[in-house]
Prior knowledge:
The chain is α+β, with helices and mostly antiparallel strands. The chain folds into two domains: about 35 residues; about 80 residues, Immunoglobulin-like (Sandwich). It contains two helices and seven strands. Strands 1, 2, 5 and 6 form a four-stranded antiparallel β-sheet that branches. The chain has a three-stranded antiparallel β-sheet with strand order 4-3-7, with no helix packed on it. The longest helix is centred in the N-terminal third of the chain and has 24 residues. It is elongated and about 90 Å long.
Amino acid sequence: MPAENDQFDFNDRYGITPARSWVRYAIAFGVVGGAWLLWAGLHQATPALRYELISFTNEDPRNPEVRFLVQRADGSKEVQCTLAARDYDKNVVGQIDITIAAGETYLEPTFTVPTRADAVNVGISSCRTLP
């Protein structure tokens, strides 16, 4: 006679083990996902073109100066950047496209952005390499 604590289980009686086939799929998904995450992180860690605002001066609100960083992987390509000056209400009051000639891969140029009204700040709208 079985003990009172023992529970009758048909799976034990007929030798049926619980299905754990999902573990193999989870491990495969984890390995593939981890490899993709590692590749994506390393690929995006070294972009072909990097630009960043360093500072701007607004001593003359009609001609603010902007200093920024441009770092490119291939120094043989020209870079074109769009600089925009904005007023207090965030309206664009001045915008210029500047072209940086091929040469050094790390630059910190300074440019003046002429405006039609008093500017409060200056920023980099975009930078791209030219073919």
